[in-house]
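Exam revision sheet. Question 4 asks you to relate a sequence to its structure. Input first:
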Amino acid sequence: MLLQVQPDTAVTASLGEAEAALFAAVGRAVNHPKGHALFQRGDTGHTMYVVQSGRVALDFGDGLQGRELGPGEFFGELGLLIGTHARSASAIVLEDCALHELDVESLGTLLERDPRLVAQFLHRAIVRIVHNEQSLTRRLRRRNEEIQETLDKLRSTMQELTQTEALTRKDELTGLCNRRGCQEFVERLLRTDTLAGHALLLVDCDEFKVVNDRFGHMAGDRVLQNVANILESVAGVDGCACRLGGDEFALIVRAEDQSELERVAAFVLGTARTLLDMQSAPPAICTLSLGGTWMGADRDWHAWYTSADAALYRAKREGGGRVHWHHAEERAA
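Answer key, structure tokens:
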């Protein structure tokens, strides 16, 4: 016959009168005071207990619901059935109690005295064990589902935080680094001692306000995105293209000497002018003004920015569409 247990059926740990009398006759009578620990969870078990008087608490740990047992109830039956096993709960005496203890050797005596009654008890004990295992499995499954749900939420939150953190360093319109991202790039160069050979170029769009006023902000946004594409194409793995705000950009590039740096600037200026010569309406870009300086370790971001900004101002004052260098002749010397 197959052993079937309904999931929600309560399986009691009580003995009938005839069973209680049989177990009392075979078991060893012991008394334990309140607070006595019969065994701890994980201990090796080899004894089954029947409560004659008093109360015993079972603590399964791990947040699982405990149980209290009273007169006529039994626990630790695997000690009777298999002799040695790891206890799944801790047993503590709640009230002074009298117990009957039975071990695996007692099982033979019980079978000799009343095999039918013992078979009835064993069937009920096995049903109870199966029921408890099923209940534990359901609880563990629910707990695993809750843990998985929590992990999914944490993963989603981490992704959102990562995206949010990335946005604090990125310009939403162009995808370039913003001012904070630019400064962090410089800090990384300083921290890794790789600043040597880098230069800062400030880039400004000539007549950008005219494009915005005449053709609208969407046209202005398109111009800014095209400028960003040009700067990003020349930044390389050792450089960084940034939008500092409005139509002001920064380009940090690594170059071997002033000649190579001037070729980079010429490419930026020439590409912008080529796009402008296509005469699209509204215009896809403006001419650009650049101001640059070498980034020496003896100065800081404020000093580099001030030098490049002064050079940019000279380029704008002379009509735009050109580049000026701060102390370029000193660098060459």
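Marking note for examiners. The chain has two domains: 17-138, 179-332.
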